[in-house]
């Protein structure tokens, strides 16, 4: 059964949703350079893919799942000097997400699961700030931060290494979800670039170029496969399912 998308429902169908059994899923990503082989919407493809799988898992457990339109524009400072990267400021993102959450609360929804694949620290903090600012009791929001060690260890060696922007990890996921969006010949020709982007950020680097990512990728995209992507989607879906059921 296809996942239920909020934008496909009529107003009257939304009114009939059983609020006490309905979980909203909010896919989050960015419009940002991901190397010469992946589209700038790679994060959105991944988050929507996770959302579809989590929705199916919830439905099998007797919960109604509704996928919201993705949060597409986010803080994207590290890729800002690459063509196609379109970002917004942290304060703007916090305000937009905060107003969105408040509007959903006014619609009497009770539970929301954030599914995020864009790991730039300022973006993650903007999401967390908006969630923390929502008055308690209005909407229960769960947001598993996949950067945490207990989640990262489930997502493969490249993800744990920090060298996973447009690399094997993300390329495998896009291959599994929308292979037509991967320039596979280009990806197969790219050399491994074992740059720990997470460490570079901690050390004060402020852009992909400063971190040594001249083509906006790190990791090993040539080693990607759709089969590995399916395994990664399963792991990501289980991480988010467990959060939704807490």
Structure characterization notes:
α2 packs across α10, α3 packs parallel to α4 and α7 crosses α10. With 246 residues, this protein is an alpha/beta fold. Helices cover 43% and strands 9% of the residues. The protein has a single domain, classed as Rossmann fold (3-Layer(aba) Sandwich). The model has no long low-confidence stretch (mean pLDDT 97). Strands 1-3-2-4-5 form a five-stranded parallel beta sheet, with helices on one face.
List the SSEs and their pairings.
Elements: E1 4-5, H1 11-15, E2 22-28, H2 42-60, E3 64-67, H3 90-106, E4 111-116, H4 121-133, E5 140-142, H5 149-152, H6 157-161, H7 168-177, H8 184-189, H9 197-202, H10 226-245
Parallel strand pairs: 1-3, 2-3, 2-4, 4-5
Helix pairs in contact: 2-7, 2-10, 3-4, 7-10
Give a quick summary of the entry:
The protein is α/β, with parallel strands linked by helices and 246 residues long. The protein is built from ten helices and five strands.
Uncertain runs: none
CATH topology: Rossmann fold
Main sheet strand line-up: 1-3-2-4-5
Mean pLDDT: 97
The amount of beta strand, in percent, is 5-15%
Number of DSSP E strands: 5
Please indicate the count of domains: 1
CATH homologous superfamily title: Creatininase
H/E series: EHEHEHEHEHHHHHH
User: Main sheet, how many strands, which sense, barrel?
Assistant: 5 strands, parallel
CATH architecture: 3-Layer(aba) Sandwich
Classify the helix fraction into a percent range.
Answer: 40-55%
Descriptive tags:
single chain; 246 residues; alpha/beta; Rossmann fold; 10 helices
């Amino acid at each position: 059964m296809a996942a239920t998308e909020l934008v496909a429902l009529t107003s009257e169908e939304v009114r009939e949703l059983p609020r006490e059994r309905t979980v909203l899923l909010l896919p989050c990503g960015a419009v940002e350079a991901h190397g010469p082989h992946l589209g700038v919407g790679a994060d959105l493809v991944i988050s929507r893919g996770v959302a579809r799988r989590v929705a199916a898992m919830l439905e099998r457990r007797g919960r109604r799942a509704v996928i919201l339109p993705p949060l597409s524009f986010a803080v994207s400072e590290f890729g800002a000097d690459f063509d196609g990267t379109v970002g917004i400021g942290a304060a703007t993102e916090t305000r937009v997400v905060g107003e969105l959450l408040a509007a959903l609360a006014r619609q009497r929804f009770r539970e929301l699961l954030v599914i995020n694949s864009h790991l730039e620290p300022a973006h993650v903090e903007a999401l967390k700030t908006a969630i923390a600012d929502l008055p308690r009791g209005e909407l229960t929001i769960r947001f598993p931060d996949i950067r945490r060690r207990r989640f990262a260890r489930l997502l493969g060696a490249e993800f744990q290494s920090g060298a996973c922007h447009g690399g094997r990890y993300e390329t495998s996921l896009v291959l599994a979800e929308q292979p037509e969006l991967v320039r596979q010949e280009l990806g197969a020709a790219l050399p491994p670039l074992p740059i720990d982007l997470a460490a570079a950020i901690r050390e004060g680097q402020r852009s992909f170029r400063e971190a040594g990512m001249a083509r906006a990728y790190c990791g090993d995209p040539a080693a990607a496969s759709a089969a590995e992507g399916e395994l990664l989607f399963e792991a990501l879906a289980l991480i988010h399912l467990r959060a939704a059921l807490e």
